[in-house]
Specification:
The protein is built from ten helices and 14 strands. By secondary structure, the chain is an alpha/beta fold. It has two domains: 140 residues, Periplasmic binding protein-like II (D-Maltodextrin-Binding Protein, domain 2); 94 residues, 3-Layer(aba) Sandwich (D-Maltodextrin-Binding Protein, domain 2). Strand 2 and strand 3 form a beta hairpin. The radius of gyration is 23 Å and the shape is globular.
């Protein structure tokens, strides 16, 4: 008699639990599959990771890996072209599911978004205009030297430590802004990731810039999701593992990052 008395309440409680469990299992990955498209925030111009090629098509190392993700998911891919300072807001607001750029996972950024495991390790370098008096990274430490960095980048923070007597000039945007600043005499030296500098410098006549070979720090690059998208984060981490094991990730890096073959073809 006692069991029958409480049975309706027990069943109701179980139903509520099962309903909550079903809701918990639905996430960003499920939304992507139902929607049939993966929305990815990318930098407007940031070769060799993201750029528009000669045919007006979006491509680059992180872009092509994102396309491969969509292919593995069986969905279409939609790119949201943004300047550097618009990437995180697009992800946080829900406009994008994933952020694919040459972004370093820092503790400060990780308070806002969740980063995947690194898919490449890079480092900042100094570059100057060929023929200038700034012939080394040490020369750029001269008092009053104008150092160009990207606004909001890790290089902006690092420059203040590396060049305490310099004039740090932050440029908002991406692409070749820093190279143009050095080329046009607005800055004496630039500080940016080696892959970005080498990839972007390939678009200028040979001998325009002198890129210093030494890495001034070691950084990783990672994709990012929201903290309410842990299912997608887990999937992307597995994707990085799988493409590392089958060689597809290294093939991508050898083409886009470790060579300039893409310059002639794109």
């Amino acid at each position: 008699m006692k069991l029958s008395k409480f049975l309706p309440a027990i069943l109701l409680s179980c139903a509520g639990f099962l309903g909550a469990a079903a809701t918990a299992h639905a996430g960003t990955l499920d939304d992507i599959l139902k929607r049939g498209e993966l929305r990815v925030a990318v930098q407007t111009q940031g070769p060799p990771f993201s750029m528009m090629d000669k045919k007006g098509e979006r491509t680059g190392s992180s872009v092509e890996l994102a396309k491969l993700m969509a292919q593995e998911m069986g969905v279409k891919i939609v790119f949201l072209d943004l300047d550097w300072d618009g990437l995180l807001p697009a992800l946080i607001s829900g406009k994008a599911d994933l952020l694919a750029a040459d972004m370093t996972p820092t503790l400060a950024r990780a308070t806002k978004v969740a980063f995947t495991k690194p898919w490449i390790f890079i480092g900042p370098v100094v570059a100057t205009k060929e023929g200038s008096k700034f012939v080394s990274a040490a020369a750029c430490k001269a008092p009053g030297a104008k150092i160009a960095v990207l606004f909001g980048s890790t290089g902006e923070k690092l420059a203040k430590t590396l060049f305490p007597n310099g004039e740090i000039k932050s440029y908002k945007g991406g692409g070749t802004l820093l190279l143009d600043a050095v080329k046009n005499g607005q800055a004496d030296c630039l500080l940016n990731d080696n892959t970005a500098v080498i990839g972007q410098a390939a678009g200028y006549p040979k001998g325009t810039f002198k890129v210093m070979p030494e890495l001034l720090a070691k950084e990783s690059l990672a994709y990012a999701t929201r903290y309410d998208s842990m299912d997608l984060l887990t999937w992307v981490n597995l994707f990085i593992d799988q493409t590392t094991l089958d060689g597809r990730l290294q093939k991508n890096l050898d083409y886009w990052v470790n060579s300039t073959k893409w310059k002639d073809e794109h």
